[in-house]
Model the fold of this input.
Amino acid sequence: MNYTLHQLQVFLKVAQTESVTKASEELFLTQPAVSIQLKNFQDQFDIALTEVVGRKIFITDFGKEIAEAAENIINQVHAINYKTLAHKGLLTGKLKLSIVSTGKYVMPYFLADFLKQNQGVELLLDVTNKLKVIESLDKNEVDFSLVSILPNDLQIDNVALLQNKLFLVGNADFEITKKMYPQNFLENLSIIYREKGSGTRLVMEDFIKRNGLLIQKKLELTSNEAVKQAIVSGLGCSIMPLIGIKNELHNGDLKIIPMKGLPIKSTWHLVWMRHKNFSPVANAFLNHIKKDKLKIIKNKFSWFEEY
Done:
């Protein structure tokens, strides 16, 4: 046996999410990188850790036992690191965040410097849809959440981070023949939706409802990346957050279709439950956000002004 701590971390995340895609998002790795580490880890065992049925990955009983052992090992390693850094008087502990799926294009930039400056902080980041983000916030399972639509039924405080803009998007072959299309042009298109519970879907459905539109052709997908690839391949168009399509716009795979009433604008907010007792780590992160957010926006998101 010659497995690495990194392989244990990758396998544990795959076991927890039962998805290579979700594991790659939460670990900020590419899907091929996760798949390679998973295979290298599996090659060290004669018994299968996972099995694929249809297109879904399942963890075997043996794999569940290994995942439990991996979690214990990782926790012990973290405990050693915490004790070492705490002995040096450095900030240690866990920072727990839940963010909506398109927030993965935003949050890392607000985390990067803080984590570099505080090596003893362990980040637990759950990337999911709006419904589950609000649920984790309500259950006090996280320190902060990132949303673009503020919940009305929770007592929260928040810090505004970044403007969110949503445009109608088509692929490179979409021929734009008008300077500005009317809203009812959507009725002529095949429209790609995010899954129920997605904040992007709620915004898009609200736009369609307010304008009395009847969408005939629909396709539903469960991630922003899947929607992008579907548009690129010509399966349809969608109303998407600008934040998630920077590279595709710059390389010409996607294009913005000008439409009356768009872009839809909202704001990304870091939110937390009012009267929450912050840990030293959570309090330090909030102070970091308040102090450095304008600098981060200027350095990392100035390209927003092009659109």
Q: What stands out?
A: The mean pLDDT is 92. The first strand starts at residue 50 and ends at 53. Residues 61-87 form the longest helix (27 residues).
